[in-house]
Design brief:
This protein is α+β, with helices and mostly antiparallel strands and 90 residues long. It has a domain of 49 residues. It is 29% helix and 12% strand. It has a three-stranded antiparallel sheet. A hairpin with a 2-residue loop joins strand 2 and strand 3. The chain is elongated, with a radius of gyration of 20 Å. The N and C termini lie far apart (51 Å). The relative contact order is 0.17. About 7% of the residues have low confidence.
Length: 90
C-alpha cells in the first residue's frame, strides 16, 4: 500500500522572489537532483548565478497556490440551514 501525500499550498507572500534549488525542492516535495535536472533541461524557468541555480517564485505551479479569497458576501462556512437563512434574508 502506498501512502499519498496531502496537497501542499504555498503562500507566495511568505517566499523570497528568488528560490534556491533546496527551497524549490522542499515546496515541490522532490529531491534536489530532480530540480537541478529540470533547471538544466529548461523544464523550470531558472538561471545559474555564481554556479548555483536560482528559480523565480513565479515558477511554482499554479496548482500549489491557493485561490484568492472569495468576494462572495455569503459566508459559506456557517453550519446548519444556511441556504434557508440566506433565502430568508433576501
Amino acid at each position: 500500500m502506498t501512502a499519498t501525500a496531502s496537497p501542499v499550498h504555498v503562500n507566495l507572500d511568505d517566499l523570497p522572489h528568488v528560490l534556491t534549488v533546496g527551497e524549490y525542492a522542499a515546496i515541490m516535495r522532490v529531491s534536489r537532483d530532480v530540480v537541478e535536472r529540470q533547471c538544466r533541461t529548461g523544464e523550470i524557468v531558472s538561471a545559474k548565478v555564481g554556479g548555483a541555480w536560482r528559480i523565480p517564485k513565479s515558477a511554482i505551479p499554479a496548482a500549489l497556490v491557493p485561490p484568492p479569497p472569495s468576494e462572495d458576501p455569503i459566508d459559506h462556512r456557517r453550519r446548519g440551514n444556511s441556504a434557508a437563512a440566506d433565502l430568508a434574508a433576501m
